[in-house]
Amino acid sequence: MKVAILDDIHHAYEGTSGVRRLRERAEVQIFTSPIGGPAALRGFDALIANRERTRFTREWLAQLPDVRIIAQTGNHAHHIDFDAARERGIIVARASGGYSVGAAELAIGLAIALMRQIPSSDAAVRRGEWPAPSTRVLHGKVLGIVGLGRIGRHVARLGAAFGMRVIAWSPRLTDASAAEAGAGRRELDALLAEADVVSLHASLTPASRGLIDDRRLRLMKTTSVLVNTSRGPLVVEDALVTALSEHRLGGAALDVFDQEPLPSGHPLTALPNVVLTPHIGWPTDEGYARFADAACDVLLAYLDGRDVPRFE
Questions:
Q1: What are the CA-CA distances from residue 193 to residues 58, 172, 180, 239 (Å)?
Q2: Which residues on adjacent β-strands are paired with residue 91?
Q3: Is 267 helix (H, G, I), strand (E, B) or coil?
Q4: Strand partners, 212
Q5: Could you tell me what percent of the chain has a pLDDT over 70?
Q6: What topology is assigned to 2-99+284-303 in CATH?
Q7: Alpha helices in 57-100 (DSSP H)
Q8: Is 199:111 a contact under the CB 8 Å cutoff?
Q9: pLDDT (mean) for 172-179
Q10: Per-residue pLDDT, 75
Q11: pLDDT, average across residues 19-46
C-alpha cells in the first residue's frame, strides 16, 4: 500500500512511532507543503488527512481513482464530500487521536495571559518601559465550562489545580456527571452570570452556532473574561466586539474566529482587553504523535481486513 500524509506543515510526522510502524508495512510519503492539486496524489492507495487543511470536494475525489481509504485525523470531517466518497467506494476512517490536551492547556494559558496582562507587559518592557499593573489570579475564581466533554473535563481538572471553583453546562449534563468531573452543574444563563472565567468547549452544531449572543454576553459580569479555544462561530463575533468596546466584559482570549485567518484590521485586533492566537490549540507535539498513532492503527487494520472506525 502506498500512503500519503498531507499538509504536515510543522514537519511533525517524521520520526513518530506511528509512521515508523506504518513504514514496516507500507510505502509512506510525507507532504510538508501544499500539494497544489489532486494530480500529486495519483497512485496513492491511502491518505492521512491533517484535520481540515485539505478539502476533499467531489471534483477532487473524482481525480483520485486509486484512493481507497482516507484516515481523517481529529474529530471533524466537514471538509469531505461524504456522498462523493461513498459513490467512489472510499472509506473515510476516523483517526481521532483522542481529545486535544493542547486545546485544554491553551484555554488556561490564555486565561492567565489575559488576566495577568502578560502580552501587554511583555510589549511594554520591550519598548523600554517598566509598567506596574495590579492583575488578577485564577485562584479562588469561578471557572465556568461550556461543554463538559473530554476537553472540558481536562480544563476542569486544570482549573481545580489552580484552586478555582468549577461549574459547568452541557445540553444533556446531569448533576451526577458534572460531579464526577469535579464541577457543579448550572443552566447556561446561570453559569454565565456566576463565572469569573467562561471557557468554551462545546462542539459546533446548528444548535450551538451563535450560542453566546448579545443577550448572553449581557449576563456576564463586567469583570469576567471569555475564553474560546473551541470554534469561533459559537460566539456572535459582532456582539462580542461591542461588549468589549463598551467594557461590559473584563476581556476575551480567543484562539478561534468566524473567519480564519483573521482578516487584517479586524476590530478585535484594535481592542486592548483581548488576547488573540492563530488557532494554535491542537497543533502540538503530543497532538501530532497521537494523530500518527491513530492513523497508523486505522491503516494497519485496513490492511489486515479488519473493520475500521468511520465517520459515517
A1: 46, 20, 23, 17
A2: 69
A3: helix
A4: 235
A5: 100
A6: Rossmann fold (3.40.50)
A7: 58-62, 82-87
A8: yes
A9: 98
A10: 85
A11: 95
Half-sphere exposure of 153 (CA within 13 A, CB side): 9
Q: What is the DSSP string of 152-206?
A: HHHHHHHHHHTT-EEEEE-TT--HHHHHHTT-EE--HHHHHHH-SEEEE-PPP-T
Instruction: State which amino acid sits at residue 177.
Output: S
Q: What is the pLDDT of residue 232?
A: 97
Positions annotated as catalytic residues are 231, 260, 279
- For the cut 90, the answer to whether the pLDDT of residue 106 exceeds it is yes
Q: Is 308:36 a contact under the CB 8 Å cutoff? A: no
- Residue 301 three-state SS: helix
Question: If you compute the radius of gyration of the chain from its CA atoms, what whole number of angstroms results?
Answer: 22
At the second CATH level, the architecture of 101-276 is 3-Layer(aba) Sandwich (3.40)
CA distance 196 to 303: 51
312 pLDDT above the threshold of 80 = no
Q: Is the pLDDT of residue 25 over 90?
A: yes
DSSP 113-163: HHHTTHHHHHHHHHTT---------STTPEEEEE--SHHHHHHHHHHHHTT
Cell for 135?
Answer: 492583575
**101-276: same fold as 2-99+284-303?**
yes
Beta bridge partners of 252: 226, 274
Structural domain boundaries in the chain: 2-99+284-303, 101-276
pLDDT of residue 292: 96
Contacts of 184 (CB under 8 A, 6+ apart): 165, 166, 167, 168, 178
Residue that the C-alpha cell 461550556 belongs to = 146
